[in-house]
Amino acid sequence: MAETLTAPPTEMPAPHSVNDTNIRRSLLEDLALKTLFTAGELSLRELGEHMQLSLPIIEELFQSMRREQLCEVKGMIAGIHRIAATQGGKRRALDMLELNQYVGPAPVSLEEYLKVVRLQTVQGVNIHDEDIRKVFSHLVLSDEVLERVGTAVVSGTSIFVYGPTGGGKTSIAETIPNIYPDTVWIPYAVEVDSQFIVTYDATTHRPVEQPSWGEADTRWVRCRRPRVFVGGELTSEMLDLQMNPISKFYSAPLQMKANNGVLIIDDFGRQRIRPEDLLNRWIVPLDRRVDFLTLRGGKKFEIPFDLFVVFATNLNPMELADEAFMRRIQNKIRMGYPAVPQFKEMFRRLCDRFKLEYTEEMVEYFIRVLDARYHQPLRPCYPMDIVHQITWTARYEGHGAVLNRESIDRACRNYFVSPEDAEKEAQQAAKGIRSF
Predict the structure, then answer these.
(1) Would residue 149 count as lying in a domain?
(2) Which of 3, 109, 305, 315 is most exposed, with minimal Cβ within 10 Å?
(3) Nearest CA to 252 among 265, 262, 264, 238?
(4) Do 309 and 389 fall within a single domain?
(5) pTM beyond cutoff 0.70
């Protein structure tokens, strides 16, 4: 990095020499040769844009490779030199491609990555009551829940959100990343022991306006704080470096992609990795806020575990983890069923949103139907799901949606399995009778 950083960086100054990159010259030359071999003839500027390195660095690499007869000037178009790999350069490029096929932005060093992640720590964000209320304004939550979520986010550690199905746990978990107002820098790739670890993920990271090439160190991408969401698809392999056997370079694990942001593990306890295996894997990172990754050759290295982890589950937490692990999750919130006034407010807001005329009488009727006919509690998901059913039916039939007894009854018939029907199906199944 061209200058020493002592605070969260608002911009990343561009390095102007190979030494400034903290990456070995030979590794950058190999990457440049692979880029030239893959792309063919390029101008120095085009090569710099491919590698996200400033023009002075590209000129320095070009002169070095030219002296070694690895590249040459092929001609000039519109006054701009075009360069290409020589036969010797192509042979070296092929040798390097055998080792790994990474061709892209130059990596940052592990040392720089560690420094920047720690400066951007998720524990350094200032969040206050008004921020929490604004972000969660679309949900009907008690003051106590908002205060506890806010306290957890300020801690920058972790939270366990648990309770019965349909209690709003996932909605809370998905909203938490929206609390963070700032941006962070994510590197395209990190170099460790001459290996490339691709860190930036276009499906995970949300870039904001980028500085132009040459004006900053564009090996880093300015992004909103990361949000990584996983559910039942989570496996133990996703928590370790993943090497593609064909390309032979690594992809960063989930927790590394989530550094300086939020990692949400939804439906915890229902993953393809056993809960105890996940908890054992993370008991040290959650406690010490560092993680250890291993390259294929056995080299271990340390990275920050600087993320806010959200566990959401409808299972009993004490049946998923022992006391030692639960102690390391500093914040826990049980999401129960809302009180009747809260349930009515949820319905009222949805009626406003979907242009339905709200009447308290109809919501009270729905509550009675839930209890008497379907034996269901007041789950926070029901207002949205039933309003959706009402609007879908109205759109299918070609008329405006109306909230009345008939529309509520029809929506409930579509949505719920009645106890009577379930019992009848069970009886028929016992007799070997098919109902369809």
Answers:
(1) yes
(2) 3
(3) 238
(4) no
(5) yes
